[in-house]
């Protein structure tokens, strides 16, 4: 997954319960069909943002939609689950405020954008997508936003690494 170490993806039972019940009735529930597709949705995001509140976490803008908005997932990399290091899904819900995406871009948190998948959401930001996004750099004027072609190149490189590790 782009932006994440090559580790298993996990969600605790407590997080699953909150997602499936809409945080105990406070939010719209995320349907089980969407929850079941989370690994695929996270692996093929519309956009990735650095988390504003948790260092090392990313917010994944997925292509899934529910009545109240676009489904996003917060994922913490290198988390511990029992005795295993994993990428841990810490939250999943529909983002109702469309201006939130523009706020994240203006704040320099955008790391990846697939303009074809997310054109209706990400166009809200206007020319901000051209600002760039080098991971770890909060100054949007010097960042390079990764695009779908970068994701393809990343996956090709990952496959090559796996093939060579099998040969050794």
UniProtKB/TrEMBL annotation:
InterPro entries: MuF_C
Domain Phage MuF C-terminal: start-end pairs: 26-119
Any single Pfam family the record assigns to this protein: MuF_C
Name of the protein described by the UniProt record: Phage MuF C-terminal domain-containing protein
Species this chain originates from: Noviluteimonas lactosilytica
């Amino acid at each position: 997954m782009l932006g994440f170490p090559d580790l298993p993806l996990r969600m605790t039972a407590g997080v699953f319960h909150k997602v499936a019940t809409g945080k105990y009735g406070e939010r719209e529930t995320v349907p089980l069909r969407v929850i079941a597709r989370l690994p695929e949705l996270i692996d093929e995001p519309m956009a990735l943002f650095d988390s504003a509140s948790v260092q090392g976490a990313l917010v994944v803008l997925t292509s899934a939609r529910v009545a109240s908005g676009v489904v996003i997932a917060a994922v913490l990399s290198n988390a511990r689950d029992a005795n295993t290091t994993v990428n841990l899904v810490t939250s999943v819900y529909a983002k109702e405020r469309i201006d939130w995406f523009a706020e994240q871009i203006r704040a320099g948190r955008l790391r990846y954008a697939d303009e074809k998948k997310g054109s209706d959401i990400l166009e809200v930001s206007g020319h901000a997508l051209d600002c760039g996004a080098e991971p770890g750099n909060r100054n949007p004027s010097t960042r390079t936003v990764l695009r779908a072609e970068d994701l393809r190149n990343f996956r090709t490189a990952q496959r090559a690494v796996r093939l060579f590790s099998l040969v050794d």
